[in-house]
Amino acid sequence: MQSFIPTKRTLMGPGPSDVHDRILEAMARPTLGHLDPEFQRMMEELKGGLRALFKTENAMTFPVSAPGSAGMEMCFVNLIEPGDKVVVVKNGVFGERMRENVVRAGGEAVMVEFDWGTAPDVSKVAEVLAANSDTKILAFVHAETSTGVRADAAALCALAREHDCLTIVDAVTSLGGLPVEVDAWGIDAIYSGSQKCLSCTPGLSPVSFSERALARVRARKVPVQSWFLDLSLVMAYWDGTGGRSYHHTAPVNPLYGLHESLVMLFEEGLEESHARHAVMHEGLVAGLEDMGLDFLVHPDIRLPMLNAVKVPDGIDEAAVRAHLLQEYDLEIGAGLGPLAGKVWRIGLMGTSAREENVELCLTALADALGKQQMHVDGLKALEAARKAMSDD
């Protein structure tokens, strides 16, 4: 074996996003023991940063030592007991993953399904909750990565409170790029990922649990089915008030990276980060529309950080992605499920949400489409994008 030296890519798919050099440098710092007092000081700073990011006072806010999928599972396995009814909103791939978690935890999943590319209709969700008065939890995706759709999280959480339900919210793609207001919206359990708008490496999942959620955990009649993700055991390690006990060997260096990503985020300003994602999105939209490309999602419900772009008739979408990767070292994503072969998913997340990336993407797409005899004016598209980004 020889050392692996990866090609330097520009990551504009659905995740991971580009990782800033500062974060990579932070991860290369000397490893400490996971019970070292110096490391524990950093852990407390990390928890405080995540509370500020989630806009919450929840004490139970910390990064799970595994990817966003583990954060999702932690929320479901801790809050669901066998027989519990859970209403799951599905308008893409990740609503289906929620359903899987409900079933595997022994719960009963009641599905409220919407067409891919559309946002959940709050009134329809209300009808389902009214017809299922014994529902314990409402679960939904704030930012559906498979389609680029934003749900009205505030309205859905308010609805859950009206029906005395807890909420589980997927904010894997939205956190850091869109406002996420855990306390103001009344979210009970929420999970995200380190590799998207936070621009850290994959492998960590920030989560937060309300006191209502913790009361449900304390009142459980049966043990949590997962030992590793059992909230009461994990928090014995993350609790800085009563002395930490060993649960697992924390991923020390990746946590350095997440800490640095939060330092950078707050240096920029959270609202400024949201604004930057929005401006880069407007630039990309202007350029792509100038090239004659259409979007899957209506502007009112589009995510700025995940853009689902329709593949024009007669274009080999996989060949376009391959051309971008081979000729420009640029990665964009393919469609999933019923959208496979029909859309590209172009990410503008964290460090990837910058003008140079928007311009590279437009230039590369114009070239790739030209190779398939769809002639577009790449320079004109760049002008449209630059105007949109400067106007904003």
UniProtKB/TrEMBL annotation:
Give one Pfam family, short name only.
Aminotran_5
Q: Which residues form the Aminotransferase class V domain?
A: 31-335
- InterPro entries this protein is in? Aminotrans_V_dom, Aminotrans_V_PyrdxlP_BS, PyrdxlP-dep_Trfase, PyrdxlP-dep_Trfase_major, PyrdxlP-dep_Trfase_small, SP_NH2Trfase/AEP_transaminase
Signal sequence, start to end: none
Query: Which residues are modified to N6-(pyridoxal phosphate)lysine?
Result: K196
The coenzyme or cofactor needed here is: pyridoxal 5'-phosphate
**Gene3D superfamilies, per this entry?**
Aspartate Aminotransferase, domain 1 (3.90.1150.10), Type I PLP-dependent aspartate aminotransferase-like (Major domain) (3.40.640.10)
Q: Which UniProt keywords apply?
A: Aminotransferase, Pyridoxal phosphate, Pyruvate, Transferase
Does Cell membrane show up as a keyword for this record? Answer: no
Binding locations of substrate: R345
Q: Name one GO biological process term.
A: glycine biosynthetic process, by transamination of glyoxylate
- Tell me a Gene Ontology molecular-function term this record carries: alanine-glyoxylate transaminase activity
Under PANTHER family, the record lists:
ALANINE--GLYOXYLATE AMINOTRANSFERASE, AMINOTRANSFERASE CLASS V
The family this protein is said to belong to: Belongs to the class-V pyridoxal-phosphate-dependent aminotransferase family.
Name of the protein: Alanine-glyoxylate transaminase / serine-glyoxylate transaminase / serine-pyruvate transaminase
Please name the taxonomic classification of the source: Bacteria, Pseudomonadati, Pseudomonadota, Alphaproteobacteria, Kordiimonadales
